[in-house]
Design brief:
The complex is a heterodimer of chains A (397) and B (61).
Chain A (H helix, E strand, L loop, with lengths): L1 H12 L6 H28 L1 H11 L3 H4 L4 H4 L12 H16 L12 E3 L7 H4 L6 H4 L3 H4 L9 E12 L4 E11 L5 E6 L10 H9 L3 E5 L16 H21 L4 E7 L1 H12 L5 E5 L20 H6 L2 H7 L7 E7 L12 H13 L3 E7 L9 H11 L3
Parallel strand pairs in A: 4-5, 4-6, 6-7, 7-8, 8-9
Antiparallel strand pairs in A: 1-2, 2-3, 3-5
Helix pairs in contact in A: 12-14, 14-15
Chain B lengths: L2 H23 L10 H24 L2
Helix pairs in contact in B: 1-2
Classes of the chains: A alpha/beta (397), B mainly alpha (61).
């Protein structure tokens, strides 16, 4: 009350004159306030997942983008693309795939990283992040961004594994992050990121896994973040370079500690790496590709990255064969996730078109296969919903 | 300042807080239900709007 009285007195003693110019300026400012406010409100509606999903569905020019299944996909019988029907077929197909990619040398099960930087987060920023690294690259590298994980519950330390892939004319280095929990639950997650980003973008997911006791190996796709300086696609050698860091980092983790269970999760191109790598390496018990892989006949224009169409690889095993391979021998399983309204790619419910056929063969060989559609958002990401679904599945025996 | 403008100002002050909460609580960066880019636009728009209202109030009380 006292304040109101004082305010009235001040107004009476010192009135501000309102002339024509001030009135005009006031109107301009009102218009600007209204305009900026509308920008704020519209941005909220446009960017928030529930409203954004509704907008994207309304905006879609093609009914086959999110809503309906293109009839041309229904003409293909997925069962005709699965050539595996017995354990003998399975072993032969895996050998053929390994032969094409690894040039009949098999997985490099004895190779280890050339350098292991233990507890990189314990070093000062000056020690681990050279000043020569440009500001725009700092957020892409663990050595400069380890502080993101400084408040992580249950995080004992982060090691950086330097993996070097030798080829005749040059070598390719990939830095892999190894997040070690203080109280481990005996399980290991391999997380592989895709194009246009790094595994550090998923720092919150990684922290949640570590909090629950999982050890996590974080990989970047060739040419991004810690896997910078890759080389152009040249067939099998390129594929070997993509899969080599996964195999070597897994060798290292298993040499340090016995794990009851190894799961692999990948987003986008990392989802493709996950699907193919799980087919190659039975040490990966559970695999979860997210918005990253579909059989050739179901792919749209934006989903045709050249390495994923390497002809000798697809002659050795179709993608549906690879999905079956990822679920066998007995006790292994794969759950594929797709964002139905994904603004980028691998959207709609195309994955459901082959789920039953792959699951039937996987089941007959003692494994399990499932396709899950996330309808909670319209982005190209591992949503909180998908994260929780993966976690529930990983925690199954 | 009319009641409508006051309600508008409350909305402009509250919306960035709601947006920031969604951005932070559901996972920042690319995982969250509101992207970083979205948060910047929401906060930017609302702060500009509040600034305009404040200046208007100063010159035309």
């Amino acid at each position: 009350m006292r304040f109101r009285v004082m305010k009235r007195e001040r107004k009476e003693k010192d009135p501000v004159p309102v002339d024509g110019k001030a009135k005009l300026l006031g109107r301009v400012l009102s218009a600007l306030a209204l305009f900026s406010g509308l920008v704020g409100i519209i941005s909220f509606v446009y960017y928030w997942d529930p409203t954004r999903t509704a907008i994207k569905r309304l905006q879609a020019s093609d009914p086959y983008l999110y809503e309906q299944i293109d009839p041309k996909y229904l003409k293909v019988d997925p069962a005709s693309l699965i050539r595996i029907s017995s354990p003998t077929d399975m072993a032969a197909t895996r050998d053929a795939l390994l032969g094409v990619i690894w040039n009949h040398g098999g997985l490099p099960l004895k190779h280890l990283p050339i350098v292991v930087r233990k507890n990189i987060q314990a070093l000062s920023i000056e020690e681990r992040c050279p000043v020569s690294i440009s500001p725009q690259h700092r957020s892409l590298l663990l050595e400069c961004s380890a502080d993101l994980f400084s408040d992580g519950a249950n995080l004992a330390g982060i090691d950086q594994l330097v993996v070097e892939f030798q080829r005749t004319d040059q070598s390719y280095r990939s830095n892999v992050s190894f997040f070690r929990p203080a109280k481990p639950n005996g399980r290991l997650i391999l997380y592989h990121h895709g194009y246009a980003g790094t595994h550090l973008d998923q720092w919150r997911h990684i922290l949640r896994w570590v909090e629950r006791g999982y050890a996590v190996l974080g990989f970047d796709y060739m040419g991004y973040g810690g896997a910078g300086g890759g080389f152009h696609y040249n067939g099998a050698e390129y594929l070997r370079a993509v899969f080599y860091p996964v195999s070597v980092a897994l060798n290292y983790a298993l040499s340090q500690k016995k794990y009851d269970d190894v799961a692999m999760i990948g987003l986008s191109a990392g989802g493709w790496v996950t699907a193919v790598y799980a087919a190659l390496d039975p040490r990966v018990k559970k695999s979860y590709p997210v918005s990253g892989v579909l059989p050739v006949y179901l792919r749209r224009k934006k989903e045709r990255a050249e390495p994923q169409f390497f002809a000798p690889m697809l002659e050795a095993a179709t993608y549906l064969d690879m999905f079956v391979l990822a679920t066998s021998p007995e006790g292994r399983r794969q759950v594929q996730f797709f964002n139905r309204f994904d603004r980028c790619c691998f959207n709609n419910r195309r994955g459901k078109l082959y789920e039953e056929e792959v699951a039937t063969v996987a089941h007959s060989l003692g494994g399990a296969f499932q396709v899950v559609i996330d309808e909670t958002h319209a982005r190209h990401k591992i949503s909180r919903w998908t994260f929780e679904e993966i976690l529930k599945d990983m925690e199954l025996p | 300042m009319s009641v409508i403008w006051r309600l508008f100002a409350v909305l402009m002050a509250g919306l960035p807080l709601i947006a920031a909460w969604i951005w932070w609580a559901d996972g920042a960066w690319e995982n969250g239900a509101l992207s970083t880019q979205g948060l910047v636009w929401v906060v930017g728009g609302c702060v500009c709007s509040l600034a305009c209202l404040a200046v208007k109030r100063m010159i035309t009380p």
